[in-house]
Amino acid sequence: MRDYYFTIFIILAALFSYSFPQYFIEVNGFELKELIIPLLQIIMFGMGTTMTIKDFREVLKAPKSVFIGLICQFTIMPVLGFTLANIFDFPAEIAAGIILVGCSPSGLSSNVMTYLAKANVALSITLTSIATLVAPIVTPLLMKLLGGQYINIDFWSMMWDMVKMIIVPLSIGLLIHAILKEKSKWLQKILPFVSIIGITILTLVVTAASQKSLQTVGFLLVLATLMHNLFGFLLGYWSSKLFKLSEQDCRTISLEVGLQNAGLASGLAKGMGKLATVGLAPALFGPIMNTMGSILASWWGRRD
User: Fold this and answer.
1) Which domains are assigned to the chain?
2) Looking at residue 82, what is its pLDDT?
3) What is the largest CA-CA distance in the chain?
4) How deeply is 302 buried, as exposed, middle or buried, from its count of CB atoms within 10 A (0-12, 13-18, 19+)?
5) Cα–Cα distance between 134 and 260 in angstroms, integer?
6) 32-89 pLDDT, tens digit each
7) DSSP class per residue in 51-65
């Protein structure tokens, strides 16, 4: 059960926030949604302190797996998001949120799930790192292409938002790790807990802000989000099998594809000023992907 503690905690946080949104909208006149971007920057900084140049050597060791993983990451989920948005015929801004989740890079939870699944952790870290670094260009480009029919996408504005949310804090974390080296280990012990707290607060705030919209399209959006996640795992795995990758690499790419950075998508929705609508799908995707991902990873972990 301990593999599911974080998942259960996130689900409970989402349910509590949905039931009592008034407690997570503002405190003494301060709107809690203003915490979203700083929290994301802290999480990205924490990711940076765990990274080294060695993480990217995996590209040289297994270029085929890295290339296939990145292609799957930025084709399967965006196309799935676009397809589901059209099939379910959601209101424009909610449909755009589904596509935005699909166009986002993989999240940090994929590294943990890969470890639980006895898959290729080094490949997972490399894919997450590279996908995150190229996202400021690829995500706005894909959103312009696939989501532009639903909402107006300002490519340069979104790219700059992502640079501030990803590249700047990530670079600072990477630099601090390079300077402090062994002395930065205490940061690496503390920041995972900070990240967990940050993800929980993001879940509470985004769910509360999206509660009214969720009441309108609740069940169908949950179904679409669940399909988005499950088909991501499925297509990521079998696409890798098609290219004759090892079982470990297939599991890794499946988890990298299915586990998106929903927090980043929420931050981008906040940057657009559409947290309650565009941010609705990311708010649901986080708890759903952590639930399904932990179940899949634990099942794989018990198999050869």
Assistant:
1) 11-16+34-299 (1.20.1530.20)
2) 93
3) 57
4) exposed
5) 14
6) 777 777 877 887 787 777 666 666 666 667 688 889 999 999 999 999 999 999 998 8
7) --GGGGGHHHH-HHH
